[in-house]
Design goal:
TIM Barrel; Alpha-Beta Plaits; four-stranded antiparallel beta sheet; homotetramer; 36% helix; elongated; 11 helices; eight-stranded parallel beta sheet; 339 residues; alpha/beta
Chain lengths: 339, 339, 339, 339
């Protein structure tokens, strides 16, 4: 951390800041400049809380220099984390595709879609049993019954299951059924839930919050790793901006940044970013081109009758096209030796 | 809801949309225009889910016309909700001021600050026992011990206590101690927590999510009311934007909008919006001038030693100035007959 | 346009609104609903200004139904616009690559870079002679001398030149030299400049404003077309959001949306979006995958000595890699029959 | 500027960076930390361009420490700038109110509104003769005829005139007529226009760009001061965010920040921020409470017939209420000794 002092900061103010730095067990190094003094904070283990100093007289700014995350950082663990789910490896040379409906609506619906997406090349099946809904009056998911259907989908197709855990109350139930437990956008900073996920033996799919910086997102993952679960898959799903032609704005530069900062795998959810079916295939191709480790896509056999998110769900035929196109780009990238 | 069809939508597509509207039990009214047909959806009780139609062939846009919230809306309940906490009325003619430290750190700290803010005119005391922190390595609050200290503050000063409930696990504990239970920014769409809050008999202070629209915020309140608790105080605390000279951007136009749309009281937290002490007093004056029903402000007797959010905490002397200034503006508004 | 009335709007208020609609020469069609009346405005030629009605008593909302743009819209001209610059076609089956330094610094610099990028497969050369700079103290470009150097680059390499016109004062000079005239991000709503560009016979590269909606961007293009110049290439270059790991957030969903709404070609500038070299290649691949018609990329032979934007400029060797990768993806897309 | 090196940066990389710093005539000061080296750049006159270093091998980040602006900064000129327009002082103890229609539509309209707002206490009259409009098909202002009407308003009422200059072409005309020349939001980074404004002897009202940081805004003002015109009034008018209940989000914390960073006066335009009449009065009160030096408000005698921005224009009776309320709050602030 670098503390920048006011131009007219007094020697006394500078001395107080130095004293306070040393009280914390850090080393203070004043750096006189032409116009003002800055003070470096050195030899801190872990991040320094800027607000400890920002309030002191004479201090103009506290500029963080080191990153606050540790276990998730590539500086801490240089080699990429590969997460194994049955025979599937996430974060390795295979680009994974997770597909399925927004919500599990019935056994017929789930099985129909599962077979269709599997045929097109999906690796895993997604479907919500517990749904976070903006309105208390909207369909909230089938709950336990939905989980049972998901188990049946796995038994029938062999595909691993990704489904969301919304709260501590139902975490155990979800954990028992799911192969990968999703922590949704709205829960990214539900710290109790993150700690519970950290105590699980199952891989966690951690979606980025709608207005989260990458630093906040990695710190959410840090909660999970700090509790002992190293299996975190990050999922970018669009951020909230002034843009109104898509539901959210897909932040694809997050992929190279996350891959540089962290060893964790990162996948993309184009469906929630777009909010409209006609943007999903182009954004999926872009996600592969930017070298995400995978995709999670919403597919519905009858999107116009879907109980939630119908407008963004692909028809199974469209999903088949998507798979073909993205696998082709991915093979092209591999052949050209990227990553 | 208004469905706008593509310019070249076929009669068959229009008929399918009409059929689907009527399947849902609504009335469809086609509106031919010069260039394209639109179809109004009428006689729906409650909001219509646009995505039911947005995916159908020929449909260009689904434009919501009615609001999705009901119990929180002023159209449903025209008179303002007034919430009583002991002798204090929130939403009535008295502008309430809630003050205290970000986190309860010790009995001495809490009692010292409580006496200071009470002397300056605070109505209620705030202090976190369970703290949501971006980093797992930051101070997470004193937990149960913090609650005990808060109870002692109430016993000593008579001030009602506002403190946050982070999760279902500790909700009962918090509910027992608090006079007002805070649902924090990061929990605004923690729907299980909202439902639990709806089952409580205590008033709920519901902070706006960092990137929430007013509609989403009011829908979060709707969850609480729908479970039977009508005592919700809304709290605007800044939204996330590209602006970087304050931690968040205080959205003061939310106050007239919320007061127009809803009967619930709304207060302002300038401390978290600003993130820096020197903006807190001006923003507090602005909050009163825009006719919020109250303020929630962070105050610390030694902000430079605070375990969290020191940079935005006022010194007690500054808080005294704040109270004097905002009470004066408020009286001026009353004298001029507003609201 | 649909006018939504308040729940308790009086018949008199409704009649006034209808009268005002008809005064404008439009047709009013009241649509009674269960709770409130809406009034459709029909048979308007061109967009209706909602603020004509939004201020009237009893009017709650004015919801635009038709788009405000005409000449740029695909509904007006269904076939794609192809722009010819010498032998090059923009908007057709060839993906164009424009490359060069942020600013022309010297003849040696420009020629060196031009030869390098041409060798790697660039179609056109870009370089600023007049530079818009945030600071009055930064290098403002070589001006007329820079244009002369650009002409020499064209004479030497045969590559067409893209360079920015900043104001009316220097437009003639730029027009004389350039093959494509760029209107920069900060000038997207410089309406005098747009009109002047509309009077030119040269193709215009119109960058999206940093906080412009697609509608505003297409309206800026409409200014150019309305003055008689149909040759507009749109260029997405990132929008301003809360995200801070890239300079701006590249909005790739703009590509399918623009291609759906408009017949104009659209290219991507990944360099200004990223602001950092290490994101430029991944974002370029993504831009091609989303089927933009081309790329504009900053390249510098000695980025660490560049007079502007060095941090985002690729080394010539990196640009060679970029060309190879994006051409490969593009060919893959063509082979799979997209677009 | 502080350059943060990668954890594993080599000595050679560090030496290259130091060499490059010294080539620029600055002083380099390496600061070894526990994990990585940082290098301070000292004794630079004026801001350092981070991109000079950000591209070099081993450099992770370039963190600006000093501000890029000089002439506009309070460190450069500690005392507040007061701008005199006839008898009126902007930036002094009197809070100024500028009012009038969005556009001058006719002599009758302008004179009617001018007399009404003067009676309520407006200090200056505003009205557009040249209007920046998103659509080429919207009313673009009366041009020269509008300026003549504004001159007549001044002659009749004695009120100074504020009107916008859109481009170099019409600047002379506007300059001749106006008492204060407005540079609009969309022109904030029209650098040629800023330079021309800097050559004027008339005060300039510089609106903040819709997505401009305060630093960019002050740099725009720096262009004007650098050309020799010290008379700049800054005007905050809302920034573009995800929020959709107001047209823009009024950023009131800009007021204390600008007053701290700069000696220039700052006023608020609540009308363009709100975009809706019913938010204008509350936001005006907030603007005064936050201690802006003044307000600029749109007023129209027949807003429902206005040729532009009718929805946000106050009725004259509402403006009278606004003046009364804000003057009262302002007097209250003065009596309490602020500022």
């Amino acid at each position: 951390m670098l503390l920048v002092m006011n131009k007219h900061a007094t020697d006394e103010q500078i001395d107080s800041v130095i004293a306070r730095i040393e009280e914390q067990g850090y080393t203070a190094r004043p750096i006189p400049g032409g116009e003002r003094v800055s003070i470096g904070i050195l030899y801190n283990k872990g991040p320094v809380d800027g607000s400890l100093f920002l309030g002191m007289p004479g201090v103009k700014e506290a500029i963080p220099v080191t990153r606050p995350y540790k276990l998730v950082s590539r500086e801490f663990k240089p080699e990429a984390t590969i997460i194994r789910i049955g025979d599937i490896e996430v974060g390795s040379k295979h680009m994974i595709i997770i597909a399925g409906p927004c919500a599990v609506e019935s056994e017929t619906q789930a099985l129909t879609i599962a077979k269709q997406v599997q045929k097109s090349g999906a690796d895993m099946f997604r479907g919500g049993a517990f749904k976070p809904r903006t309105s208390p009056y909207s369909f909230q998911g089938l709950g336990k019954e939905g989980l049972d259907i998901l188990v049946k989908v796995r038994e029938t197709t062999g595909m691993p299951i990704v489904t969301e855990a919304l709260d501590l109350e139902n975490f155990d139930l979800v954990e028992e059924c799911a192969d990968v437990i999703q922590i949704g956008t709205r829960s990214m900073q539900n710290f109790s839930l993150l700690r519970r996920a950290g105590a699980s033996k199952k891989p966690i799919l951690l979606k980025r919050g709608m207005a989260a910086t990458i630093e906040e997102w990695l710190m959410a993952a840090e909660y999970i790793l700090a509790e002992g679960n190293p299996q975190v898959i990050l999922c970018e799903r669009g951020v909230r901006t002034f843009v109104n032609h898509s539901r959210n704005t897909l932040d694809l530069s997050a992929v190279p940044v996350v891959k540089n900062e962290s060893h964790l795998p990162i996948i993309i959810d184009p469906s929630h970013a777009a909010g409209r079916r006609d943007q999903v295939i182009p954004l999926s191709r872009a996600a592969v081109a930017v070298e995400a480790h995978g995709l999670m896509v919403e597919v519905h056999n009858e999107p116009e009758k879907a109980l939630s998110d119908g407008a963004q769900s692909l028809y199974p035929e469209q999903f088949a096209v998507l798979c073909k196109q993205v696998r082709s780009i991915y093979n092209d990238l591999l052949a050209n030796g990227q990553d």
